[in-house]
Amino acid sequence: MIRWPSVYSRPAHAWSTHNKCWPWQRSMAFSCRDAPDMVAERRPMVRSFRAAEATEVAYAGGKGATLARLFQAGLPVPPGCILSTDACAAVLAMQATPQPLGLDALRQTLLTAPCPETLAQELDAVLTTIGPAPHSWAVRSSAVREDRATASYAGVYESVLAIATEELWSAIRACWASWCTERAVAYRQQVGDTDLVPRMAVVVQHLIPAQSAGVAFTVEPVHGDRTRMVIQAAPGLGVGVVSGVVEPEQYTLTKTPDVRLLDTRLTPPAQVPLLSPDVIRDLGTLCVQLETYCGSPQDIEWAWDGTVCWIVQSRPITTLSDATNPHAEDVWSNGNLKDVLPGIVSPFTWSLMEPQLGGAMRQQYAAAGYPIPVERPLVQRFWGRPYFNISVFNEASYALYGIPPEIQAAQLGGMALPGEQALPSPSLRQRLRWLGHLLRFVGIANRALHAASTQFALVQQRWEEGQQTLPHMERTALLERMDHYAIVGQPFLLLHLHLTWAMSGNFSALRHLVARTLPQGQGDITAASLTAELVTGLGEVSSAEQSYRLWDLSRLAQQSPQVMAFLAQGSWHAWRQELAGTAFGAALQQFLATFGHRGLYEVDMANPRWREQPDYLFEVIATYARLTPAQAPFDPPAQAQKRQAAVRQVLQGLPIWRRPWFRLVLQRTQVFSRLRENSKSHLVQLIDLGRLIALRAAELLVQDGLLETTGAIFDLRAEEIKAALRGELQREALQRLLTQRRTERQQHAARHMPELFVGQQPLYAEILVTQGTVLTGLPSSPGRVTGTARVLFSPQDAARLHPGEILVAPSTDPGWTPLFLLASGLVMET
């Protein structure tokens, strides 16, 4: 679910609750004399759905904040505005009542109190910007604590429909007063809400002149079947459906991208359904989109005006049990993840990464036209290691673009999926649907292309600012920064995923064109090798640039006996002092200013960055410094010549009419390859900001006596760190939590995990022993080389690798890149 920035915080001292008297005793310890505190921090009390404040629960209440978020997301929500919780407080503040009010007296006050002139003026002004209601208004209460995942408050507070403009204030007062009803008091007591004063906003919207209306549940409500949805409908405004006094028509649908009607139950004596199949399908698709956007199963109120299905309310379903997972046989793989997170991911990193990565991927597939139900997890941890649900990816790739599972599996690392069945021949309609999705994909790629430079610059600016401010940030500001971290991180992660898709899609198209130029029988291996040459040595690629800069540093080192002696000693902790005043030291500082956010296995925030621990860089520079210029591990001009020769070879093999298409696909593949690689560097800058946040929090908690070392912070989840900073976690509880996490890590580390498994939890990994002296695998670049095979398990073993050897490594984390350039060949696990 998208998170929106908070620009408002209610004063902590808002309401005085001395002279307490519980609500269910029908008297309340509320004095109007206390109310001015509520509005001490003045801001507009009425905002349209377009305003940022309208998405805040503290300002707009649960119902209003949800409607505003949906409206801003472009979903069909009738135009409207919010009277904030401060509006109710302002009305009470005008009443000179020094004594606490009982429940009935407070209700009467809310029903009869005059409206402040400023509030009436604000409402009139906002309603003017919204425009007059074509028919009438709908006025709905929106309490701060309603429409939560744990308590819906459905039907507890007042909604008033079909209201003329001159009757608006009576309806608004009725909504405020509904906070004081016995039903509301009893419900608050039942769910444990102890608010003693009204925190009630009000929603004012255009009323939809509905031909039919009702409710929809994105999970079948009786049995909790998460693969089905239910829509209920009745003529008119649908009030009887919501209140339960009318028996509605009911439609049961599949919760899939191509929503299908499974069952229709009409209400006698009706002979014809209120909704046509097309309307039912459109409404079902809208419900799927709504659940995907909100991130949880939804109870939706809707209205159909003959043209548009409108959403008038949406709240989480609070009555679902933990139903059996209908997708227990999903296939899980760590093929792509183990390159960047090869070990056990730290709890802090995972607490930030899981919701952002899962959310960004859901947004990506929804934008492509394939919303994924929230009960289908996309990424999970098993025994401390992250895995992707490749069953979902396979289903989505075929539904969107017709990519068979075996090809999708190869793109994910060449993993064979168990139990895959042959697919039926696609129909013409299916092929046309794929074409439509492909055109949509091109649009997504173009938008990502145009947004990339701006977003790169924005992340660069945030990273530079964070390095200056985060190490010294005060506690309150740090808590706010932690809350807003996902607001920055998830949109950029989504951009990175779009660029990755665009690069992969164009690369596949390019390889297909290349394969057409090859003699029959040369196969995919030659095509893959030749395609790789077409995108080799492009220049302006961050990961390659850092290796070139390290080579330049090694040339500087050769010119200084002092630097060479420093590199040879093998102890580099005092490098700043020992290299002060040298050209090498100044160049190294410039390198760290640009690439200091990188590191070994840098996706995990628990791992130090190069600016903190540059020992690995010194090892690489020392190795490079032993080479002569003729032994340089890379030759950009030669790479450019190879690329140009490959282009000429492909052009000669293509008919003239295909050559313009080839040039276009080649150009886009090269552009997206460069952008995707550079976006990874900026993504690591955001990860680095997360590490800086954690380290600053650790310093504060060490000062508080809650932590013994700063490194322990990464064994805590983000929400636990925030609780500790707010003083909600004591030292004893925190230490028990840390001990538990360390024990879990030791247990997880002792397990050998499989790359691929089926089901909910891998019990053990079957270790396959290859017989003989030959390893087989997938080619990733052209060429043939003979040499000594050097097996390294960590980039920190760099000194063991000699120039020209074949590097055998477990992953392709960017930390390995300088060593890749030193080796003559590379073998790695997929």
TrEMBL record:
<dbReference type="GO" id="GO:0016301">
    <property type="term" value="F:kinase activity"/>
</dbReference>
<protein>
    <recommendedName>
        <fullName>Pyruvate phosphate dikinase AMP/ATP-binding domain-containing protein</fullName>
    </recommendedName>
</protein>
<dbReference type="InterPro" id="IPR002192">
    <property type="entry name" value="PPDK_AMP/ATP-bd"/>
</dbReference>
<dbReference type="InterPro" id="IPR051549">
    <property type="entry name" value="PEP_Utilizing_Enz"/>
</dbReference>
<dbReference type="InterPro" id="IPR036637">
    <property type="entry name" value="Phosphohistidine_dom_sf"/>
</dbReference>
<dbReference type="GO" id="GO:0005524">
    <property type="term" value="F:ATP binding"/>
</dbReference>
<dbReference type="InterPro" id="IPR013815">
    <property type="entry name" value="ATP_grasp_subdomain_1"/>
</dbReference>
<dbReference type="Pfam" id="PF01326">
    <property type="entry name" value="PPDK_N"/>
</dbReference>
<feature type="domain" description="Pyruvate phosphate dikinase AMP/ATP-binding">
    <location>
        <begin position="59"/>
        <end position="329"/>
    </location>
</feature>
